[in-house]
Amino acid sequence: MPKDTITEADEQKIMAAIQDAEQNTSGEIRVHIENYCEGEVLDRATEVFAELHMHKTKLRNGVLFYVAMEDHQFAVLGDAGINAIVPGNYWEDITQEVIKHFKQKQYAEGLAKGIRMAGEQLKTHFPYDQKGDINELSDDISFGD
């Protein structure tokens, strides 16, 4: 189980980063952690994105952080709305930052840093709307097998 590696304190740190990042944006961030990645990492992340209904946000501005612990696979995937406006190297920069921490077994720290980086872009392009903004997706981490 991925929960063997991600402690309760790690979960709290990751969820706090999500809440911090979403505080200034209408964007939505989710984290999914499982042990094994079936197939290509981006293909699996796309499946999880759909399973979590992340494509159903009003502005199509969801971001998924996908981790397969045992297979040492990671991907960050943005929906169409955000992909249309972020710089071309944006996801690669986040990926490199997260992996740098993962290599030191600092999983929660790496995810928290990447989430905050994504939040900065979301804040720039999808600012928080005080009148009508709702949290469209859960801030909880989803776990696979």
Automatic annotation (TrEMBL):
<dbReference type="Pfam" id="PF04536">
    <property type="entry name" value="TPM_phosphatase"/>
</dbReference>
<feature type="domain" description="TPM">
    <location>
        <begin position="4"/>
        <end position="120"/>
    </location>
</feature>
<dbReference type="InterPro" id="IPR007621">
    <property type="entry name" value="TPM_dom"/>
</dbReference>
<protein>
    <submittedName>
        <fullName>TPM domain-containing protein</fullName>
    </submittedName>
</protein>
